[in-house]
Amino acid sequence: MSDEVLYEQRGNTAWITLNRPDKRNALSRGLIQRLAQACRIAAADASVRCLVLTGAGNAFCAGMDLEELRQSLSAQAELIWEDAHRLAELYDFLYRLSKPTIAAVNGPAVAGGAGLVSVCDLAVAVATARFGYPEVRRGLVAAMVLPHLLRHVGERAARWLLLTGELIDARQAWQIGLINAVVEDQQQLYHTVEQWLYCLLQGGPQALARTKELLARATPHVLSIDELARGSAEPRLGEECRQGLAAFFEKRLPPWVTLPSA
User: Fold this and answer.
1) What is the spatial order of strands in the sheet that 101-105 belongs to?
2) Domain assignment of residue 261, yes or no
3) 124 located within any domain
4) DSSP secondary structure string for all residues of 38-68
């Protein structure tokens, strides 16, 4: 396992840690590949009954690695499509994993990072965590996380988050149903996770797996993985995305933003 993703089994639980703290655990191509590998290891190991996903440092996950994305814009369209499809498959794999999953949100979870939170069964966050989907402000589309977000918060809140790109704090995320609990610090975060693990491990493995299967079937995706990946990849090929990323790195407003006159 690469140092970008740490895998540790504690009793019957696999703890998976995104480990790019200098990049706020941004989702690079390599990290996505290694996270998928770690999830497959946990899925295949019969001794693992639960999975906890968290981040190293002060952030859970800042979303896509925008520097890597900017560099990839000059690549062939096939590479951009493959990148999007790989992340869409990871979200779907985590969502459909037969074992209970917990997101231990130790800091900001933004864009693709908020997507990772939404595909876990349970989520607890420190009070300082922030959540949001600022993709539209970069000329991007948060297509892959859309169905997962809708299931948790409903259409009104989803439209607010996806269309405005605004960030919300942990308590607001709890109020709209994006997470299950808010705690004050990391010590309480991991204490809460351990309490939840104790409860989850009381359930029969097959009963838990069947329950998760029925939950997934009761809330089916209207869009396929291919459609969600395409919805994310296509904007990356356009000029608006190029302009949005350029503005982000140059710390200026993108050209479509007009400030109100005095």
Assistant:
1) 5-10, 13-18, 50-55, 101-105, 122-126, 181-183
2) no
3) yes
4) HHHHHHH-TT--EEEEEESTT-SB--B-HHH
Question: Does residue 254 come out as left (phi exceeding 0), alpha (psi in the -120 to 50 range) or beta?
Answer: beta
Helix ranges (H only) for 142-238 are 146-164, 170-176, 186-200, 205-218, 225-236
Model confidence, pTM: 0.93
* Cβ-based burial of 251 (10 A; exposed 0-12, middle 13-18, buried ≥19): exposed
**Residue that is written with structure tokens 């942990």 in the block:** 170
**Active site (annotated) includes residue 135:** yes
Dist. CA 119–CA 63, nearest whole Å: 14
Report the CATH number at residue 93. 3.90.226.10
pLDDT tens-digit readout, 9-48? 999 999 999 999 999 999 999 999 999 999 999 999 999 9
Which member of 135, 155, 234, 250 is catalytic?
A: 135
**For the chain, how many structural domains are there in total?**
1
Its domain, for residue 84, covers 5-188+198-218
Q: What would you measure as the largest C-alpha separation in the chain, in angstroms? A: 64
